[in-house]
Request: fold
Amino acid sequence: MSKSGLLFLTALALSVTTAGCGSTSADSPESNEAAAAAETALAETPLAETPSAGTGSGPGAYIDFADYEANKAAYDSTDVVLFFNAAWCSTCKVARDNIESDLSAIPSDLTIVLVDFDSAQDLRKKYGVTVQHTFVQVDPAGNELAKWASSLTTEEIAKNTV
Reply:
């Protein structure tokens, strides 16, 4: 990894620690350990290995962004919600675990699309996503309909759609 990349990841890990994914102060030794752990997790665990995305292929789906991009038209009749999440984010993991624990709870008119926060920089820019654990509902043309953060359950995600 380049020196600038390592500096970026360290800064990102520290900002996450102080912004809610961690619970310690940025000045404490614990936060330095958390930042190092976050950096290690980011480098060693790509998002594609973390959630069990791709378990649905139509209405009521929970899929990754590549699957969505490959067949957008299949989801035109559903509420499509992009879930910007990161493998290293503890609250993102809680949300993924909650969703994955009961895929049948996803309403038939909802498609949850997992987007890797770290690699989807163009999408983050397009929708103004600055923190992981952000949800963006889009229409079939990709226009933003709603944006919110921190839903932890399928029910909360569905309630926030417009």
User: Anything to note?
Assistant: Residues 13 and 91 are 14 Å apart (CA to CA). The mean pLDDT is 76.
